[in-house]
Amino acid sequence: MPGVSGGAAGGRRRSSSSLRGRAKRARRSVEVPGAPAPPPAPHLFSDPAEIEALRGNLLAWYDRCKRDLPWRTLVRGVWVSEIMLQQTQVATVIDYYNRWMQKWPTLQALAQASLEEVNELWAGLGYYSRGKRLQEAARKVVSELAGQMPRTAEDLQKLLPGVGRYTAGAIASISYGQATGVVDGNVIRVLCRLRCIGADSSSPPVIDRLWDMANTLVDRSRPGDFNQALMELGATVCVPKAPLCGECPVKQHCRARRRVSGEGAVPDVEDCGKCVGGCPLCPPATEPWDSSLGVTNFPRKAAKKQPRVVKTATCVLERRGCHGAPEYLIVQRPNSGLLAGLWEFPSLLLAQGLQEEKQQEALADHLQAWMGWPVAAGDLQLIGEVVHIFSHIHQTYVVYSLPLDGDVTLDPASSPSRWVTEEEFHASAVSTAMKKVLGDTWAFPSFPLGSSPQPLSPSTPSSGHRLLRDGTFHVWDHRRAVLR
Ligand code: SF4
């Protein structure tokens, strides 16, 4: 039967024509002159019985199938995990979360931690400002809010650094039972499919509609579970590329699936009078429905902005430590900006299009100014290139090495710096990119003289030098390998 199903729990069915009439009447009754027009009914949840049924089906599935995650109960755990989960997969977060909670078992303990300790634990998780803000917020709760967390989404967002609308809604609903919705990437995907929303899902008008929808749908008696269920559905069933529609607990409410399976009317053409030429929530006319994509027609995003291309020269300075083991010099980045406060090998941002020879000279000058004694460009040994993609930056590190004899005294007035063993390096607050730099410095295989070495991976350069642990170098390229 065409139209909206009341679902298993509600058991009520209505014809599409009666729904359309009802929705039109509802629209007429709330329209205010000058206010933006409400979205067309096919993109809304307007039937209370259907909403009730969807809540029941989703919560029943969640109770049966929810993943066992360590942060489901503690208020502080929800907060820490929600911050860590921004832009990061659950599987990656679990280990970081457990270590974090073990190291700082109370808000007071976190408030007393140094930024250095926070960065050390956060190393490798990316988006480092998240850890910094989390700690700033802990300090604020302890020092300005008498140790009491704000309890509503509005106060959480207003009072705590690093807590945006989504995180505030998640904490307030999960920890304090506030009936407020949440919209994250998983929820966007599920809602866009449930209601055939094909306009750019990152555009403010669509995001606003999705928040309205999440607030309408959230279960009043179990808001935290409902929100987690919706996110869990997006993470495990309604996944981006191959959603498991057959196993989906809300499939009877899903208009994208109905459109694909041919059950009922095709909503965004036949039910939505505004869809032809100008519905704000339908796919744009320039990108019509593509039947080969099925339900994955939804959601849609505007084309991603191309990342900025950046090249940086970085130098692995190495000396023999007191037990003969190699030690490396690392310096601290400024306390603001990209990778704030993290440690790295001495590095220099390169001007666009600089020739290799000039890059080397610029790096030598940079090191010389910083160390206070002459560094010849010819002493810098090229190791190769390491590519690392940040969310908005395509970063290429041109890696050099410079072995040093004996001790080196650094100017204490320059950036904070220290010598570390390989083990200490990995325990320091260093980015994944720098770990790749050190890893690739040592990653090239030993080549028999005159053989033709193969690069280890696509990021491995086709030629360069390899610093050996005995202080000698392999110079290699795709034609030859020479030990000197
Ligand atoms: S039926 Fe398929 S597309 Fe629709 S919500 Fe469920 S998994 Fe997603």
Automatic annotation (TrEMBL):
<feature type="compositionally biased region" description="Basic residues">
    <location>
        <begin position="11"/>
        <end position="27"/>
    </location>
</feature>
<feature type="compositionally biased region" description="Gly residues">
    <location>
        <begin position="1"/>
        <end position="10"/>
    </location>
</feature>
<dbReference type="GO" id="GO:0051539">
    <property type="term" value="F:4 iron, 4 sulfur cluster binding"/>
</dbReference>
<comment type="similarity">
    <text>Belongs to the Nth/MutY family.</text>
</comment>
<dbReference type="InterPro" id="IPR029119">
    <property type="entry name" value="MutY_C"/>
</dbReference>
<keyword id="KW-0227">DNA damage</keyword>
<dbReference type="InterPro" id="IPR000445">
    <property type="entry name" value="HhH_motif"/>
</dbReference>
<dbReference type="Pfam" id="PF00730">
    <property type="entry name" value="HhH-GPD"/>
</dbReference>
<keyword id="KW-0234">DNA repair</keyword>
<dbReference type="GO" id="GO:0005739">
    <property type="term" value="C:mitochondrion"/>
</dbReference>
<dbReference type="InterPro" id="IPR003651">
    <property type="entry name" value="Endonuclease3_FeS-loop_motif"/>
</dbReference>
<dbReference type="InterPro" id="IPR023170">
    <property type="entry name" value="HhH_base_excis_C"/>
</dbReference>
<dbReference type="Pfam" id="PF14815">
    <property type="entry name" value="NUDIX_4"/>
</dbReference>
<keyword id="KW-0378">Hydrolase</keyword>
<dbReference type="GO" id="GO:0006284">
    <property type="term" value="P:base-excision repair"/>
</dbReference>
<keyword id="KW-0411">Iron-sulfur</keyword>
<dbReference type="GO" id="GO:0000701">
    <property type="term" value="F:purine-specific mismatch base pair DNA N-glycosylase activity"/>
</dbReference>
<keyword id="KW-0479">Metal-binding</keyword>
<dbReference type="GO" id="GO:0032357">
    <property type="term" value="F:oxidized purine DNA binding"/>
</dbReference>
<dbReference type="GO" id="GO:0035485">
    <property type="term" value="F:adenine/guanine mispair binding"/>
</dbReference>
<feature type="region of interest" description="Disordered">
    <location>
        <begin position="1"/>
        <end position="44"/>
    </location>
</feature>
<dbReference type="InterPro" id="IPR003265">
    <property type="entry name" value="HhH-GPD_domain"/>
</dbReference>
<dbReference type="InterPro" id="IPR011257">
    <property type="entry name" value="DNA_glycosylase"/>
</dbReference>
<comment type="function">
    <text>Adenine glycosylase active on G-A mispairs.</text>
</comment>
<dbReference type="GO" id="GO:0034039">
    <property type="term" value="F:8-oxo-7,8-dihydroguanine DNA N-glycosylase activity"/>
</dbReference>
<dbReference type="Pfam" id="PF00633">
    <property type="entry name" value="HHH"/>
</dbReference>
<keyword id="KW-0326">Glycosidase</keyword>
<dbReference type="GO" id="GO:0006298">
    <property type="term" value="P:mismatch repair"/>
</dbReference>
<dbReference type="InterPro" id="IPR015797">
    <property type="entry name" value="NUDIX_hydrolase-like_dom_sf"/>
</dbReference>
<keyword id="KW-0408">Iron</keyword>
<keyword id="KW-0004">4Fe-4S</keyword>
<feature type="domain" description="HhH-GPD">
    <location>
        <begin position="84"/>
        <end position="236"/>
    </location>
</feature>
<dbReference type="InterPro" id="IPR004036">
    <property type="entry name" value="Endonuclease-III-like_CS2"/>
</dbReference>
<dbReference type="GO" id="GO:0005634">
    <property type="term" value="C:nucleus"/>
</dbReference>
<protein>
    <recommendedName>
        <fullName>Adenine DNA glycosylase</fullName>
        <ecNumber>3.2.2.31</ecNumber>
    </recommendedName>
</protein>
<dbReference type="GO" id="GO:0046872">
    <property type="term" value="F:metal ion binding"/>
</dbReference>
<dbReference type="InterPro" id="IPR044298">
    <property type="entry name" value="MIG/MutY"/>
</dbReference>
